[in-house]
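To the structural biology subgroup,

Please find below the input and predicted structure for Cinnamyl alcohol dehydrogenase 6, which we are adding to the shared reference set this quarter. The sequence is reproduced verbatim from the submission form. If anyone notices a discrepancy with their own records, reply to this email rather than editing the shared folder directly, so we keep one authoritative version.
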Amino acid sequence: MAQTTPNHTQSVVGWAAHDPSGKITPYIFKRRENGVNDVTIKILYCGICHTDIHHIKNDWGITIHEITGIITKVGSNVKNFKVGDRAAVGCLAAACMECEFCKDSQENYCDKIQFTYNGIFWDGSITYGGYSEMLVADYRFVVHVPENIAMDAAAPLLCAGITVFCPMKDNNLIDSPAKKRIGIVGLGGLGHVAVKFGKAFGHHVTVISTSPSKEKEAKELLGADEFILSTNAMQMQAGKRTLDFILDTVSAKHSLGPILELLKVNGTLSVVGAPEAPFELPSFPLIFGKRSVKGSMTGGMRETQEMMNVCGKYNITCNIEVIKPDQINEALDRLARNDVRYRFVIDIAGGARE
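Predicted structure (tokenized):
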């Protein structure tokens, strides 16, 4: 799987899983030379998310797509970046740049999109993600990190942040003059950032969860206005037709019917969690409430930079637990048990100054 091309001359120390057991061990591989459209980034921090567990155990093991670092080299065609800039890379590595979606800066919906991990770059080489000391990236798929937010807590914004930001933007929640009542289903890596965005944008935020223990942290730690225990029939009944918009971040199998009942007439449920089993979607809550269900995946590059700028404006970052590279396997085991509040971030550079 270690596919390279002649321009891959830079030996890089990284960490990878070599078989479906998912055990991460040190790994030396090749990165490409910095091209005319490339920037080279010294990686400081990498976030870990559930997607990584899937890829590590089922595909090639280098997957990380939440990367922050410092630019050390720029190609001759690079615009808006210079050596020393604080930079970040998410899950997008390349796109055709010619289709209707790319021209509208919705590169994430391009049919030829290639990801930062397990993708095939234009030169035929495999993209290796961010479990390593450095990364070479096309500058068009790199964003600036605002000076006022910490690089470690910024890393998961490239996944969790943009994933919840886009549906909020699509539903006019960012600059809405009217205060909306929004619901966030699930209080994990995605959900906790969604609560922060919702409150920053001035809305009334209700967290919906199956875990009673999440109520205290939802209200006291994150500032949520209300909490609904979705296993409590009385609370769910009391919450019927009270919300304008719901963002569902849960990746476990669940029915959308009870959640839809919480929406007002004409309300929208946006789904960003991806359970392995199909959703249960009963028709009556849709029909009798004139409600809509839609999906959303990450975001284009213009949206990603906008999201980072918004995080700088409101000082929004992820709640994280920083680990060292030799703790990756332990962190992955804990993540599989949802034993993290709310994201693990790997200190790749060993505490190097930003």
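Summary notes: The radius of gyration is 20 Å. The chain has eleven helices and 19 strands.

Regards,
Lab coordination
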